[in-house]
Amino acid sequence: MRTGNETVSRKVVITLRRATIDDASKLFEWRNDPEVRAVSESPKAITMKTHVKWLAERLSFTHAESVWMVNNSEGIPVGSARVEVVDVRMARCSLVIDKSFRNKGFGRAVIKTLKEKIESMNRVALARVHVKNLTSLRAFIANGFHVTSTEHLDHGSFMELSSNADRPEGR
Q1: Model pLDDT, residue 166
Q2: Strand, helix or coil at 61?
Q3: Is the Cα dihedral 127, 132, 135, 137 positive or negative?
Q4: What span, in angstroms and rounded, lies between the C-alpha atoms of 133 and 5?
Q5: pLDDT in tens, 92-104
Q6: 73-80 long-range CB contacts below 8 Å, 24 or more apart?
Q7: pLDDT for residue 170
Q8: Tell me: the pLDDT tens digits for 100-152?
């Protein structure tokens, strides 16, 4: 169920608000969490200088392609979410959940919200998940995504997922 910027999923209520440069420290902390880095496309830690540059660039994009802070029903930040437009037909979603809020349903609620945002842009939602990140994989599949391919990189393999069952990778 969705009401405005609020999503209720399995009794988990989240709200999204557009991130600001004031959120840089919290986002930096989440992005550099060792568990997050271990399942990221680039496993190396990110410097604050690089992070702030990346965030400022992302915040200059349109509202539909942005970075959001995810808050629980009490207004406590539990993670971040991002949509990156790939082309006129597809957009990739990603998320990070604070380690103290993982495995409590927040990831599924965020994925549901991001998928709805992308579909409201008349695009197919995509995601890329490290093969060892089974919790994320299950959360995406529970939200109607399916694996379309696997890519092998130096530090691991990643599954490409799509919300469109009829066209590989949303094509």
Answers
A1: 57
A2: coil
A3: positive
A4: 27
A5: 999 999 999 999 9
A6: 73/13, 73/14, 75/15, 77/26, 78/14, 78/106, 79/30, 79/106, 79/107, 79/110, 80/19, 80/23, 80/27, 80/30
A7: 44
A8: 999 999 999 999 999 999 999 899 999 999 999 999 999 999 999 999 999 99
Beta strands per DSSP E along the chain: 2-3, 6-9, 12-18, 67-72, 77-85, 90-97, 124-130, 146-153, 156-162
CA proximity to 43, closest of 158, 161, 137, 159 = 158
Phi/psi of residue 48, nearest 5 degrees: -60, -40
User: What pTM was computed for the model?
Assistant: 0.87
Residue 7 near residue 109 (C-beta atoms within 8 A): yes
Distance CA 90, CA 16 (A): 21
**Nearest Cα to 39, choosing from 107, 104, 118, 135?**
135
- Burial pattern 13-40, b for ≥16 Cβ within 10 A else e, equals bbbbeebeeebbeebbebbbeeebeebb
> Any alpha helices (H) in the chain, and if so which ranges?
24-31, 34-38, 48-59, 106-120, 134-142
Task: Copy the structure tokens of residue 162.
Answer: 């799509």
